[in-house]
Amino acid sequence: MTDVPPSGAHLRGAVDLSSLVRPPAPAGQAPTAPQTGAGQQAGPSVPSLVVESGDSAFQGLLELSNTVPVVVEFHAGAPWQQLASVVRSFSGRLVLASVDATRNPQLQQAFNVAAVPTVAAVVGGRPLALFEGEVAEDQVRAVFEQLLALAAQNGVTGTVTAEDAEGAVEEPVEEPLPPLHQEAYEAIERGDYPAAIRAYETAIAQDPRDQLAVAGLAQVSLLHRLVGKTAAGIRTAAGDAPNDLDAQLDVADLDVSGGHLEDAFSRLLDLFLGLDQAGRDRVRTRLLEYFEIAGADDPRVVAARRQLTNLLY
């Protein structure tokens, strides 16, 4: 994987699932799992086919992956809506877990996520890489069909029933986003980061206490700064010019985009005292953006904020 969110889709071969393939059962040996009419295992009922998950809530999904493949989407604040739609179209043969990579470092590290969006899966408790970047719907479907075929060779052939789809669970009606937030969200979906930035800046100008707009602006600004850059180019430039603040800010952006918050914080805080006042102001501003992206309650943010305060005063 590359560290920078790619401008185009990147199917990793695209799906090296060969490690999941088991030898066929001996001749005459019947499968032990209960089967439904289409050769699929009868599965449990789940609240939804699309769920938010994280470091502390993933164990149940590992267990569910013994029944159906669990697709795992890593994002940075804005889940990929098309992916959820494709998963739902498989009628319970797949479940999607949406994970904010910046807030769940254990899962981000376990799946070796270096850029967002990254899509992986778990089959029978075993993780595997699928693809990186947003790809065309027909390619996503092809990958999922291959995933299901190879999962079947592992005996994972079940289906689940979504309670929300059946109406068994009353879900609260989701309130629409404020107009400027919706405008920003739609701009991000189509990759128009400058338009999203303008929408968030307008929202903040209208209400400086709009913390969702502040966090959204920080996230989309980071994405915009990385457009057109490569991980190799960024790291080479930073290594060749350790005193070039622009190069060091770029590599810090790269680290944050991959969920490596502590690396980004350490890099900029170590530089701080050696900079002139203009440089210190730039580092402080960038760190405050990172704090918004990660969230004030993140322990890494708490530690870095304390260290920045000590350096300032």
Keywords:
single chain, 313 residues, alpha/beta, Glutaredoxin, Serine Threonine Protein Phosphatase 5, Tetratricopeptide repeat, 2 domains, 6-stranded mixed beta sheet, two-stranded parallel sheet, 8 strands, disordered N terminus
Précis, in short:
This protein is an alpha/beta fold. The protein is 47% helix and 11% strand.
Distance between the first and last residues' Cα = 40 Å
- Summarize the helix and strand pattern as letters: EEEHEHEHEEHEHHHHHHHHH
> Overall 3D geometry?
globular
CATH secondary-structure class of the largest domain: Alpha Beta
Q: Percent of residues in beta strands?
A: 5-15%
Annotation field: number of helices = 13
Class from secondary-structure proportions: alpha/beta
From the 3D structure, determine the CATH topology of the largest domain.
Glutaredoxin
According to CATH, the homologous superfamily of the largest domain is Glutaredoxin
How many discrete structural domains?
A: 2
The major beta sheet can be summarized as: 6 strands, mixed
Mean pLDDT: 80
The CATH architecture of the largest domain can be given as 3-Layer(aba) Sandwich
In which order are the strands of the major sheet placed?
Answer: 1-7-6-4-5-3
